[in-house]
Amino acid sequence: MPVTGSLIEFLHSSWDVLTRLAFWFLLGASIAGLLHGFLPAGFVRRRLRGTAGVVKAVLLGVPLPLCSCGVVPAGIGLRKDGASKGAAVGFLISTPQTGVDSILVSASFLGWPFALFKVASAALIGLVGGWLTERLEHEPPSETAPATGDGNRPAERRTWRAMLAHAVDIIDSIRYWLILGIVVSAAIDVLVPQQGLRAVGHMGTLSASLLMLLISVPLYVCATASVPIGAALVQAGFPPGAALVFLMAGPATNTATIGAVYREFGLRTMVIYLLTIITGSVVLAQLFDGLIAPEAVGMAVPHHEHPSWWSVGAALILAATLGWLIFRDLARRIRKSFSRPTAASPTIVVPVDGMKCQACVSRLERALEQTEGVDSVDVQLKPGQAIIHGDVDRETIATTICDAGFSVPASDQETD
Fold first, then answer.
1. How far apart, in whole angstroms, are the C-alpha atoms of residue 119 and residue 106?
2. Coil, helix or strand for 385?
């Protein structure tokens, strides 16, 4: 039957995408864990002011594996800690487009010329956006003064367990987007008429790039999980430059990010932010297609070839990890729905700094649930706080929070 045949082809295409993505994604997550363990604590949030601060913010942001869910609070955190608007904007533009995991996955799917050009492009438009913001947004000296103090956050422990936990947290933070990227890529491969995509591709890089902007700017697109989609578009006949626009503008923009930039930095900075990404990605797409032969990209996009044993092994490990993370999340939700504190159970509300995404929430909840005397826990990202029910003192809770990699504001006063 046609439906059965299409389903089998879809599953086969999904497995093909997973086997080509998994090894590089796991390798990138591992490298990110090592960077997290060996970089000095607080290094990212120091001395990011002025023109030199923009350069430092971009150089630090490019290899970090942060998608929009993590880069927005991180960029705002830089600003609140004393970074200038330009440094924060440069970080916000460059960081979500790249990352060690995204670079390796891009090279696997689209070749090293494409991957390296994407990295250089992200750095370039990050620098331009940051420098324009520095020049056009005149801040009083008091606004750019460095923040004092680092709160209660202790130095991260450089243990293999801590670095592995960080790598798993990265996978956890984008697990659903990773799955969505695989599914969409397979769906494009199976369902989208090849001649229709080729017709758009034949319109030229500029027309295809503008179409990609219309699709990618309002949507959340993860830098790593979207690579298979970009590869499928190239395989279907899109110009590689248009795929570059999709992989640059998509991760760097979405409605939530645009709103956050407007609220925290103002209208002028938001306009600079958007125009830099839109103009820069389209211009660089034209440059890429003018400099790099299409064959250098097309040859790096194998289709339904037999995967190697290590690709299959990595795919199984990644699939098992994703399944375990999803099962753990569902089990926790079910357990919380049945866990009801008694009327006599003491309640402690503790503010928490440093949580950036739902993966952070899950990590802190697990740590608090394992604390002796805790009956139930409710960790909230906004506002950042932990609500603990049980016979446990506030000091123990604060220690657990710090051991999990977060911090309790020094001004917090005990209120039961």
1. 10
2. strand
pLDDT, averaged in runs of 10, over the chain (416 residues): 72 83 79 72 66 90 71 71 85 87 84 91 95 83 41 52 79 78 77 64 82 79 78 82 89 76 86 94 93 68 64 92 89 74 74 76 84 85 84 87 81 52
Residues 26 and 16: their CA atoms lie apart, in Å, by: 16
193 and 248 in a single domain? The answer is yes
Distance of CA 321 to the CA centre of its chain: 18
The residues near 96 (Cβ < 8 Å, ≥ 6 apart) are 66, 67, 68, 71, 223, 251, 252
Check whether residue 142 and residue 280 sit in a common domain: yes
**Residue 37 in domain:** yes
Domain membership of residue 333 (yes or no) is: no
DSSP percent split of the chain into helix, strand, coil, nearest 5? 70, 5, 25
Distances (CA, A) of 53 to 144, 272, 330: 11, 18, 42
Q: Are residues 375 and 309 in the same domain?
A: no
Question: Are 14 and 183 spatial neighbours (Cβ–Cβ below 8 Å)?
Answer: yes
| Look-up of token digits 């864990």 | 33
Which of helix, strand or coil describes residue 412? Answer: coil
Which contiguous run of DSSP H or E holds residue 376? strand 374-380
* Residue span of the structural domain in which 95 resides: 2-317
Q: What is the CATH number of the domain that holds 388?
A: 3.30.70.100
